[in-house]
Amino acid sequence: MNRIPSGVVQFFEPLTSIRRKAENTIIEFFKSKGYEEIITPTFVYEDSVSEFLFEPLKNKLFKIVDKNSGQTMILRADITLQITQAVLLGDFKMPARLCYAQNVYRDIKEHLGQKREFKQIGVELFGIKEVDADFEVVSLAIDSLSLMGLNNLYVRVSDTYIIENLIKEFGLNPGKAERLRELVFLKNISHIKKEGFDSALIERIEQLESLSGLSLDNLKDCAFDAANLSLKIKEQYPDVEVFCDLFYCEYPLYHHGITFEIFAENKKLAVGGRYGNITKKLGRYIPATGFAIDLNELSYFLYEKENFR
């Protein structure tokens, strides 16, 4: 009689206080940096977002019927898309800086052990094309986690355009391109060599792998945006470990351009990157980048480390 659905959130003290304090502290920090808070609807009409949703999310939607209109509504599955739509429809002066702390709902199969309800806290920055925008967003992520008392942070920086440009240069057909993205995501050079890719392409990929790493000295003359960003992060945050991963492709592809992840003790705490491709799909290209922290996972982590009590 007292069962609750799998994958939903129920907190007790001291986790409730930890999560509340973390949320308030981070949001106020974002606001102090010029980011205005936005709250988006919990429900949206499916036909207004389904075409633009990240493909893997389309099979993970909670759906209900609006008794007033008869239309199908879905619970919020992606905050970034909602904020992007708001910016494109609203009268926002560029660059636009927005922050949020809201729940996300995804109908994930029970056996996967993932949460179907979780709270994200993060920022979105619109209207700046240069690497300065990526650096601003990464800095906010590092500084917000540092506010939680977390040290020994590890940042992985990559760029989806590196592999995408190789795909175009070597004229790979859609099937081959998709397979290469998958194998690069899996870091599987041996299979890339076995599956009949051009030897010159393989050589270029091996060069990307050799350039990647924690040692950034060999990137000082590198033209990739990911290398430039990695060097800027290390210069500003000498105590943060920075791994510039040129041999990487997000799969399935969500971000387009710079992507990054931030870890503490092998726990992924923040994920971000460029997504101007979404604004383009919506009809008006605006450079866009941002990041999100899973506030629930951060709260568990802080509790286990006895931080932020």
From TrEMBL:
Q: One GO biological process from the UniProt record? A: histidyl-tRNA aminoacylation
Q: Per the record, what is one GO cellular component? A: cytoplasm
- Which part of the chain is the Aminoacyl-transfer RNA synthetases class-II family profile domain? 18-309
Q: Which is one Pfam family of this protein?
A: tRNA-synt_His
> What are the recorded GO MF terms, alphabetically?
histidine-tRNA ligase activity
Which residues take part in binding L-histidine? 78-80, 106, 120, 124
Which InterPro entries did the record assign? aa-tRNA-synth_II, aa-tRNA-synth_II/BPL/LPL, HisRS-like_core, HisRS/HisZ
Write the record's keywords in alphabetical order, separated by commas. Answer: Aminoacyl-tRNA synthetase, Ligase
What is the annotated quaternary arrangement, including any partners? Homodimer.
Q: What is this protein called?
A: Histidine--tRNA ligase
Native organism = Hippea maritima (strain ATCC 700847 / DSM 10411 / MH2)
